[in-house]
Write a structure and sequence with these properties.
This is PIR protein. This protein has about 350 residues and is mainly α. The chain contains ten helices and four strands; from the N terminus they run ααββββαααααααα. The chain has one domain (about 10-265). It is about 55% helix and about 5% strand.
Length: about 350
């Protein structure tokens, strides 16, 4: 199923294809130049003995991303690298020849990423590399450090490992753009979104074969809706758009695999833009102030509004006259009453 929207958090959507690759490099990969990681140590690592394995896995993974290419035969796209790796992971994990599908060739599986090829010509598409660089952070945070370190500490390890890679294996700094996009804000939300997708994938796996109606409302959406609230109260459009991608993936499975009714589908993710809410009234006032003089001078609107104003002025004038007459009558009566009281007092004296 194609992604609905491209975001800086798309790595969360298709993260399993990168995890398989990194895990295999950590456990079985071999570096041609073992000296690259000889000086890598970090006090934040859980196990210092594994520092070499972690460094090795990162360098092999980044090399894989750099060398990744796609070739086409007819309408079929096959991903490979110069060292013979498959497009998105190892076949031991059930990956197809033309890209990973997270749960088989179903409607809700992940799309293939990589360089798009037309005929015998390969055109660079950096999506696979971009998402791979960003998932690398999640892998370090979740699988290596097991959430025991702050985002800031993991970012330091992440960028330190990238520095080692560029110094020894990539003088062109191929991934600077993607690595530099990872700050505390984007990293934090990438972790949240990736965990959200992972929980959804577990739900898919548990219910794909059963296809029981009870699954229609058995998945907890508390976390998802809390993120929707966060989206609506913030300014991260990519975060909101990735929640839309999540909604599409969830609804596709619920509707097409389990055959749930429409009432179980997630509603659209709507975001109220505070900037738009401010701009629209001011724009309306500005446009109105420009149009009204033109309407007044050159259309029937002018005579009509003048008649209306004149009519209202006449009403106000009539009301003022009535008010003045009432006041004069009251004052006259008050004067007569005072004169009578004066005469009575004078006669008594």
């Amino acid at each position: 199923m194609p992604l609905e929207i491209q975001t800086i958090y798309n790595a969360a959507y298709s993260n399993c294809i990168y995890k398989h690759k990194l895990d295999s490099y950590k456990n079985d990969g071999e570096l041609e130049n073992n000296d690259s990681c000889s000086e890598f140590t970090n006090s934040n690592l859980i196990n210092q003995d594994e520092s070499q394995k972690i460094c090795k896995a990162v360098i092999l993974f980044l090399s894989h991303l750099k060398e990744y290419k796609v070739v086409t035969y007819g309408d079929t796209v096959y991903g490979n690298t110069s060292n013979g790796d498959s497009a998105h992971g190892d076949s031991a994990h059930g990956d197809s020849a033309h890209g990973d599908i997270a749960h088989g060739d179903t409607a809700y599986g992940d799309t293939a990423y990589g360089d798009t090829a037309y005929g015998d010509t390969t055109y660079g598409d950096t999506t696979y590399r971009d998402n791979g660089c960003k998932y690398l952070f999640y892998w370090l945070y979740n699988h290596v450090l097991q959430n025991r370190q702050t985002i800031e500490n993991v970012l330091n390890i992440y960028k330190d490992l990238y520095r080692i890679y560029t110094q020894n294996h990539d003088k062109f700094n191929t991934f600077d753009k993607y690595i530099n996009e990872m700050n505390e804000h984007t990293s934090y939300r990438l972790v949240k979104l990736t965990n959200l997708y992972n929980e959804l994938d577990k739900f898919f796996t548990q219910n794909e074969e059963k296809k029981e109606k009870t699954a229609c409302n058995s998945y907890s959406l508390v976390t998802y809706f809390s993120y929707v609230d966060e989206c609506q109260n913030g300014y991260d459009n990519d975060f909101c758009d990735e929640l839309k991608n999540f909604r599409k993936k969830y609804n596709s499975f619920i509707k097409n695999v389990i055959k749930c009714e429409e009432k179980y589908l997630l509603p659209p993710v709507e975001r109220i833009d505070a900037v738009d809410m401010t701009i629209i009234p001011f724009s309306f006032i500005s446009v109105t102030s420009l149009i009204l003089p033109i309407l007044y001078k050159f259309t029937a609107f002018g005579p009509w509004i003048r008649r209306l104003i004149k009519k209202n002025e006449n009403k106000l004038e009539y009301i003022n006259e009535e008010t003045n007459q009432s006041l004069n009558t009251y004052e006259t009566r008050d004067d007569i009453s005072n004169m009578q009281n004066y005469n009575i007092a004078y006669n008594s004296s």
